[in-house]
Write a structure and sequence with these properties.
With 181 residues, the chain is α+β, with helices and mostly antiparallel strands. Helix content is 38%, strand content 24%. The strands form three sheets. It has a five-stranded antiparallel β-sheet, with helices on both faces. It is globular and about 50 Å long.
Length: 181
């Protein structure tokens, strides 16, 4: 964890730390495939916030976050949450083809109706209520789900779903593991 922030987050719950770190990531440069404190993509920001708040390391796509980790329907306000944007038909975005019912985008929920929206050129805090009409008009379903903490813990302990993380992500993970050890 970042040395200067240990004291700030020491008394917070995991969900509060998750929201704190998402908020801290506002204005990160958007960069596909990244997840560090300088640049990130949408799923990278959520995975980094999970690492910083829980100590559990995964690095997966938005679709995998939805299908394996954020499976709690109707989450409590105290749960770690994310908003998922699911395409209603096959579509090409950039150089990637997304299939019908695949999650194309994720935004970590960091407050009441507030998400960290990590898109080009940089991430910013946005109102989910303001974002929904645009995405729905462009044929996306928007779903908020809560984290299955046990699934996250197991994947981290088994060292699965950690594909090509940034050097900085690994450094944070190693520092957290060192504090536990």
């Amino acid at each position: 964890m970042l040395e200067a922030e240990k004291e700030i987050v020491a008394e917070l719950s995991e969900a509060e730390r998750y929201r704190y770190f998402l908020g801290r990531m506002q204005f990160l440069k958007y960069e596909s495939g990244k997840e560090n404190l300088l640049s990130s993509d949408c799923s990278g920001a959520v995975c980094l916030a999970l690492l910083l708040s829980t100590g559990c390391a995964i690095r997966v796509t938005a679709d995998t976050l939805f299908k394996k980790y954020f499976t709690k329907r109707n989450p409590d306000k105290s749960d770690i949450q994310a908003a998922f944007f699911i395409t209603l038909y096959d579509r090409k975005l950039g150089n990637r083809l997304y299939k019908e019912n695949e999650v194309c985008h994720v935004a970590g929920v960091c407050g009441r109706d507030v998400v960290l929206n990590c898109v080009e050129p940089f991430s910013e805090l946005r109102s989910l209520s303001d974002m929904k009409p645009y995405y729905q008009a462009n044929d996306y379903r928007v779903i908020v789900r809560g984290l299955d903490r046990e699934a996250l813990q197991k994947a981290s302990e088994d060292n699965v779903d950690l594909f090509g993380p940034d050097y900085e992500f690994e450094q944070i993970r190693n520092a957290i593991d060192g504090e536990r050890g």
